[in-house]
Amino acid sequence: MRVGLFVTCLVDLMRPSIGVAALQLLKDAGCEVAVPSRQTCCGQPGYNSGDRKAALALARKVLAEFETCDYIVAPSGSCAGMIRTHYPDLFADQPAELERIKKLCAKTYELTDFLVNIAKVERLSAKFNGAVTYHDACSGLRELGVKNQPRTLLSKIEGLRLIEMDEAEACCGFGGTFAIKFGDISSRIADNKCENALATGAEAIVLGDLGCMLNIEGRLRRKGDTKTRVLHIAEVLAGGET
């Protein structure tokens, strides 16, 4: 099957190694992977800020770049959720394109969801010597139902122990522009998440969205924690973090 990898603009700009890891995982799963070189943003920032015109333009760009793929996979529940859940709303008054968009939505998946339910990955060669705890990012969990999929994959990694934190499903405080508009509230929410994660004694926090990852890691470092690692699940599954 031909899979289009939607790298996401945040991964491309801030942590390209996550995109490389996702590419490796898809290839190891037997997929033919296309990575359109001109891809950019899914349009979520504009959509969430009320700029539907900009979001629509970017959605059309995504459609043009990925429509011919059998599946679209993103190492981000946030971006995959934007495409799958919110694109139909963007195109509600665009009947000529709406059916094409619905087909695009139906074949869009978050990375771990795709690996478990479509690619049917049974084995991983990665190893991890230690304990981790997992943060459920809001969009992946609530818009796409991503909950058991990452845990199923983590259970296949030799040496890795998963310790669940209290309130694993609670927000980390990022929320895109929420963290900018309501900085004090965001910081307190992030503190709660960090406290729950650290209480497990795990040496690393693993998650599937780079926005959450940067927010949690940034908060830990500002509070003086330089030891606890914050890792994207793609890199853990691909063996890039041991």
Which terms summarize this structure?
242 residues; alpha/beta; Rossmann fold; 2 domains; 4-stranded parallel β-sheet; 13 helices
Order of helices and strands: EHHEHHEHHEHEHHEHHEHEH
Helix percent reads: 40-55%
| Largest beta sheet: strand ordering | 2-1-3-4
Overall 3D form: globular
Query: Can you count the beta strands?
Result: 8
| Beta content | 5-15%
From the N-terminal CA to the C-terminal CA, the straight-line distance is 30 Å
Tally of discrete structural domains? 2
Would you spell out the secondary-structure blueprint of this structure?
Blueprint: E1 2-5, H1 9-14, H2 16-28, E2 32-34, H3 44-48, H4 52-66, E3 71-74, H5 77-90, H6 95-106, E4 108-110, H7 111-117, E5 127-134, H8 138-144, H9 148-154, E6 158-162, H10 178-181, H11 183-198, E7 204-207, H12 210-222, E8 229-232, H13 233-238
Parallel strand pairs: 1-2, 1-3, 3-4, 5-6, 5-7, 7-8
